[in-house]
Amino acid sequence: MVRPVGAFENILNAVVTELQRTKGTKVKLTLEIEADAEDGFGEADIGVVRDNARQLKFKPESTGFE
Question: Which candidate, 24, 37, 32, 25, places its Cα nearest to that of 8?
């Protein structure tokens, strides 16, 4: 995706904002990221992604690599 921030903003404006118009609504967003590398990911890259995810408060089990 070339501009994920713009796409995310569009989703917020077109969907989430509309859902929140109803009193008492609770909205939960879930983001799924999938990446494939032809030769796999190096240990250094994996470490950086895991550290960044931890700082962003991702669930610990969500940063698995196959």
Answer: 32
